[in-house]
Amino acid sequence: MSMTLTQRALEAAKPKHARYDLPDGLVPGLQFSIHPSGRKTSRLLARVHGKLKSFSVGDMALMTLADARAKAKGVLAAIANGEDPSETKRAVAQAAAETVETVAANFIERYAKGRNKTWEETERQIARDILPSWGRRPISSITPRDAVALLDGIVDRGAPVAANRVLAAGRKMFNWARERSLITSSPFDHVKAPTKEKSRDRTPDDFELSLILRASTTLGLVFGAFIKLLAYTGQRRDEVAQVPWSELNADLTLWTLPPDRTKNDLPHTVPLTPEVKAILDALPRTSEFVLTTNGRTPISGYSKCKIALDAAIAELNGGKPIPAWHIHDLRRSVASGMAKLGIQLPVVEKIINHTSGTFGGVQGIYQRHEFRAEKRAALELWAKHLTSLVGDAPGADNVVEMRARG
In terms of pTM, does the model score above 0.85? Predict the structure, then answer.
């Protein structure tokens, strides 16, 4: 049996030309290695399921003899309970590597980009609200209490709807992680939406549309064209903002959106009226994108555009802003405005590319008529209506008179 090693004897051990080991004598298998450099380390030799393994205990410059013995005894106790400490250590290291940040990056790349057209918004929500709090933590360490605290914090800063969006994004990401066996449960499993949302039903009327269109001329050529194209075509914000010239035919009379650019994954055609052609003709072709400010990417910064537009609207309206509205509301104005002009609902739905109404279910499967002529006639009628709202004068006089007449 080896002599029991003491702290003083360990400290007095001198290095030699080759490494040598000092057995502890108190804890079976515990050895202290004296390296030629003078460094002293400890390791434990023990059999796990009949196989001799070596477990690093630590650097003796950072621990005492008593510390090394305590750690070695812990390893022996784990082995006695049927565990393999080396596998446990590997699992812990793997869990530490699978942080929320690394899982989020994989989730966006492997899942969201291929299945969600709005993956960039999901990425933004995760980056803004989830990663600052949890990014460096192992994903397995996130608890339901953490999830509730995160959402409560977003609500407390005055953004309850954003909290709902973060809940949806977080739930998708953690469910994906569970499917990949990175976690056994999601912290969002039983968390309810922080706030009840009301569906948007704001529809700018003709007076407000006239103000919006007039005010758009103050935004500059590109963003002014953006607002006008939304109002004249009734298409979705991103569909308009990101349109490439390649989707437009040579004489600018037809716009064809491929399936990967539409919400319902179906190709969609939009007849372009002379008014829209005039808007497009005024834009320089400096990029593959119709609407660009840098020649490389389509426009963004919608919130700044909206702030400037609202300021111009208020100025035109005698210093009074119109009730709160969103850029998406223009699409609703197009649909309701066309209905007021007597345009049939099936034609309106074809123009705005809705499939959940007249063309939903079985009807949508068998109804393949594109309504191209009907869509063109409807859009031409709508364009004339918008032109009549704006008039020819550049100022606000006609707008004020129209409100007085209304």
Answer: no
